[in-house]
Amino acid sequence: MTNEVVTTGGAATPANPANTRLRGLLLRLKTRFWLRLNALGKLSNTTAFKLTLVYLTVFALFAAFLLGYFAWNTRRLVTEQITRTVDAEITGLSEQYNQGGIRRLVFVIDARARRPGSSLYLVTTFTGDGLAGNVGLLGEGVLEHTGWTETVYRRLDDPEGTEHHALVRVFELPSGFRLLVGRDLEERERLYDIILSAGQWSIALVIVLGLAGGFFVARRVLHRIDAMTETSRTIMAGDLSGRLPTVGTDDELDRLAVNLNVMLDRIEALMRGFKEVSDNIAHDLKTPLTRLRNRAEEALRSGQGEVGYRAALESTIEESDELIRTFNALLMIARAESGQASTLMEEFDAADIARGVGELYDPLADEKGLALKIDAERALPVRGNRELVTQALANLVDNAIKYAPPTEANSDGSPADVVVEANGDADHVHLSVSDHGPGVPVGDRERVVQRFVRLEQSRSQPGSGLGLSLVSAVARLHGGELRLEDNAPGLRAILVLPRGGPQLPQPSE
Length: 509
Ligand SMILES: Nc1ncnc2c1ncn2[C@@H]1O[C@H](COP(=O)(O)OP(=O)(O)OP(=O)(O)O)[C@@H](O)[C@H]1O
Ligand SMILES: [Mg+2]
Prior knowledge:
Blueprint: H1 17-44, H2 47-113, E1 120-124, E2 130-133, E3 135-138, E4 147-155, E5 164-172, E6 178-184, H3 186-236, H4 252-284, H5 286-302, H6 305-338, E7 346-349, H7 350-367, E8 372-375, E9 381-384, H8 386-403, E10 418-424, E11 428-434, H9 467-477, E12 481-486, E13 491-498
Parallel strand pairs: 8-10
Antiparallel strand pairs: 1-2, 1-6, 3-4, 4-5, 5-6, 7-9, 10-11, 11-13, 12-13
This protein binds adenosine-5'-triphosphate and magnesium ion (MG).
């Protein structure tokens, strides 16, 4: 025989499947409840919802005041109407008394009191004994004072004998008789109650609808803000291609998103430019640096004596100068492209720049046997960065002198080889440099303004392919353009600048 061991605690009892299911359901309900509560908390924390609450409170207070005023005025009007009716009746009855004495008054009151929906009437002697009327019970001391009182009363003809409220006037007739006339106040109170309860219900409805509307608006706004926050998170994480969502309603959120997207476009373009520059530097400066290093190493290894070392050092200095020039050109392009230089804008004469640059390059042109002509008589005021515009024009003249060979017999009055010209119209200034050299083929004109791009035909000349990049960046900085045209033969490069300087991009309203 085996002994059954019963465990009472400690060990886990087998779970009841119904219990487990119930517990799971409760847990799910609880989680859902907390999630909802959390969402509600988030909604009620939005500006849209808070604004709704403020409007709602102001509106509800105003509505309550208006309804209270309306109810109070209605009550006052009804009271006024009652007093007018009672006054008229008292005047009529005292006339009856004056004409026919107390007997006639009693007779008239008896007749009137029997009419359905009649007023309240009571005639008493000066000791308070009732002579006629339809009032059975009155509040204490009502008959003792003449004038208006609100009192409880009971009608004689009311079989149930319930108490009501009435507004009564006690009037003392000559010879001490007292006349009481009054009207029931039940209708006035009912009207008052109806207006008050209608008011309460409408305010409650306004609050409920207002809150629902507030939640709805807040949810819509929150939904859109959440979407924007989500996108900005991906942008912050490094994905610059993300853009804020717009719904096309052109409301304030849409306009903000559009403007921020334009800003992101600009940042992305700048970042791309920055990457291009670093790639270019890495690629195009590595070769001359390596060459420099190898030459120094070669000179050291070969041990050619002082003459050899001197020659190696001289070529090293020459190449270093070339590298420094390239670095300077790159820095200047970066400065023009970053838009930083747009803060250093001033008013200057473009013709003055043309004359200055022309004169500076005249000796160099002379040296190469080229005739350089400057055509810049008329003053051309323009707003821009003087230093960068000067450098840009200098780059164009440098190219013309470098790439255009002298024409034959230019000294005998034939057209000049290089012409530096400054002219313009009401809105723009044109600084142009024309030569009679090989020119730039139409297909290469877009490419040639990129950094480090040099055409095959010019490889024999020194240069790093950065001159036109700077001209183009300066043109962009000023909101102008660089045009490369055919000078048949040769190249005509025109730097177009708006007279008023760069215009800031207009944000959408
Ligand atoms: N006036 C011109 N006539 C013919 N080709 C030109 C002329 N100007 C520019 N180019 C062509 O455009 C290329 C780019 O010119 P850019 O001024 O940018 O560089 P670069 O003159 O080669 O070097 P850098 O100006 O940096 O010393 C030149 O290498 C040349 O092939
Ligand atoms: Mg050049």
